[in-house]
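Why do we care about 3D structure at all? Because function follows from shape, and shape follows, mostly, from sequence. That is the central idea of this module. The next example makes it concrete: a single protein chain, its amino acid sequence, and then its structure expressed as tokens.
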Amino acid sequence: MATIKKPDANPIIAALLTWFVLGTGHLLINGQQKKWIYILVCQLIGIVLCFLPSIVVGVFSIIDAYQTAERLQKGEELDENEYTFGLLYKIVSILDKTAVYKGS
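And the structure:
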């Protein structure tokens, strides 16, 4: 697995981009492309199921993007598919068996 190290990651911008632009805070700020794709797929499935699951995944994704950017800003090196928010990890790991959770 590839790892990322981005001490210039900004948690506020990561959270805002994740909220307003389809989760792109994970991709553009945190550098986690695979994670972004799986979260987007989970949100689309949530929309098909009933819309509420999509909102839940979206909120969890914002929290995760913020917490991940904070860890990157502190100089931590993370897996490109590492989740910081446990509930989001549990949801996405149903589809993505390569997801990693280490918490904050």
